[in-house]
Amino acid sequence: MDKPIRNTMLLKQQNKELIISAFREIGQGTRNDIAQLTGLSISTCGNIMRELVASGELIAGDMAPSQGGRPSKIYIYNADTRLALAISLVANGAFNQIEIAVVNLSGNILVRESYMQPLSQLSFEFLDSLIQKQFENTPQIQAIGIGIPGMVVHGEVLYCDVPNLEQLNLRDLLQDKYHVKVLIDNEMHFKTFGYYQTHNTANLKNCALLNAPENYTYGAGFIVNGHLLRGNANFSGEINYLPYVSSREELIAQCSRDDTFVDLISKVIISIITIVDPKYLILCGFRFTSALVDQIRERLASVLPAKLLPELVLQPDISDEYLTGIITVICNLITEKEPYAVE
Predict the structure, then answer these.
(1) Cβ distance 229 to 188 under 8 Å?
(2) Neighbouring residues of 312: CB distance < 8 A, sequence distance ≥ 6
(3) Pick from 144, 148, 83: which is nearest to 111 by CA?
(4) Are 315 and 286 in contact (CB under 8 A)?
(5) What domains sit in the chain, N to C, each tagged with a CATH number?
(6) Which of 1, 43, 155, 156 maximizes the CB count within 10 A of its CB?
(7) pTM of the full predicted structure?
(8) Average pLDDT, the chain
């Protein structure tokens, strides 16, 4: 393909994303409204909006009240024309908690279901049965996003708190069966991105999220200059590989005792501070308590000057932000934006 043609197609796609984002923001509007919001010309908006009407993503409505000139047609964003399926997995003791949400292009939840499944019985076949049920009930689903409590590279689960999912390429398996876009990622990326989306302020442009569930290993996620840090191989945040323990079993054992947990997690936090220097550090997972956070804060203050310490924010339950992260990513995916793009 010639470079000028490729550049023209790319520019048109970018303009289309701008217009869709504007409609997602205001719900409905005229060509003039969208042109003012996006900075695009009225003719460019009109051409793309006609294509969106043809695809069903916009609905042509009534004429806007005249203000002295030629009346303009109102276009309404049809968020239900394409749907997505968000699934969060959380290892919780001997059970696995599964949250399922069917959402429209505006991120509104149309269906939400929860399941508790023993870890030993949670398999790809069980997970697939839940997905198949949603496709049978809602054939408009065009994308699937799944958060995994483990390490994921190119859709393959390298290790996981759900052993039956290890060494499976969930992305390829689901794409081959359902012929839709699929994004599989580790839970910490979704939780961190969802937290940033939910609590989005200028102060959060440099923050870290540290997750410590009971009876499992810890993990982290980082927002640096307003962007999620994923790294070259999606390995960012896999802090259980820091060389403070010799095995996964030792790590879980040390996290189970308050004294060794405080010592270990303080070392981890100091490592995070020296590498990404966050302004805020969100502590989530039910292993953290107010009393333990006070001890951690004292331990950090004995090592680093106060001016270098991030503000510690305790929020044990991060489940809503987790699901929000998945929903935002798959809505971006289905509208052909960068998955972790920030509005």
Answers:
(1) no
(2) 281, 283, 293, 296, 297
(3) 83
(4) no
(5) 3-78 (1.10.10.10), 81-190 (3.30.420.40), 201-319 (3.30.420.40)
(6) 155
(7) 0.88
(8) 92
